[in-house]
Amino acid sequence: MRKEFLVYIILFLGGIWIAQLIGKDYFATYGYLNSVHIERFVQEEMNYVDLFWNILWTRGKQFLIIWMLQMTACKRILPILLKLLFAFLLGFLLMVCCITVGPTGLLVVLATLFPHGICYFLAVWGLFGWQQTMRFEKRQRVKEIVIQIVICMLLIISGGILETVIGTRLLRYVLKVSKY
Fold first, then answer.
1. Per residue in 42-79, pLDDT tens?
2. Residue 77's closest CA among 66, 93, 62?
3. What angle do CA 47, 98, 9 make, to 5 degrees?
4. Count of CB atoms within 10 A of residue 67's CB?
5. Alpha-carbon distance 159 to 172, whole Å?
6. Cβ-contact 99, 105 below 8 angstroms
7. Burial letters 91-114, b for 16+ CB under 10 A, else e
8. Is 158 helix (H, G, I), strand (E, B) or coil?
9. Which pLDDT score, from 0 to 100, does residue 27 have?
10. Are 100 and 92 in contact (CB under 8 A)?
11. Rounded to an integer, what is the distance from CA 163 to the centroid of its chain?
12. Residue 37 — pLDDT band, cuts 50, 70, 90?
């Protein structure tokens, strides 16, 4: 457990290092956090219904790929790879937000991950964690898969609703307060 945690910390720091290496000029000019995009995001009104369907479409594809991969031979290594990727990308995102927005970058990261991130985390856990905790006979395997899919779909839809309704407004508020 200690070695695993150490690897996550190293990848988190690696994400920070890569973001520093790329630098502020790239993110301010070409990156997804350039000032024009952030100002338009804060000032303009959104169509929340279209945003919800876009989020649901995007997250649905991601979870479908993860679900299909966990049915293959790489189901044992996939959770580890997802944790490693998350650690690296969290460090990268944190540093990019701090470079672009300043000290309130931590608040921007929290606003982009919560509260909907909890639903997405539970959905990923549902894809991998339930297989070890649920033991059924072979004929009940189909029932287990259907239950797993339905619960994960409900969590993804709940996460999409939270991301649309709360996440975007929270992110707008944080960006306004940071006077970007």
1. 777 888 899 899 999 998 898 888 888 877 777 778 88
2. 66
3. 110
4. 18
5. 18
6. yes
7. bbbbbbbbbbbeebbebbbbbbee
8. helix
9. 64
10. no
11. 11
12. low
Nearest-CA neighbor of 121 among 88, 92, 159, 64? 159
Select from 175, 178, 177 the least CA-distant residue to 38: 175
Report the Cα 130 to chain-centroid distance in Å.
20
d(CA 2, CA 63): 29
Scan for tokens 């306004």, then name that residue. Answer: 176
Residue type at 101 in one-letter notation: V
For residue 158, what are the contacts with CB-CB under 8 A and spacing of at least 6?
A: 119
- Residue 145 has a CB neighbour count (10 Å cut-off) of 15
Contacts of 70 (CB under 8 A, 6+ apart): 78, 127, 128, 131
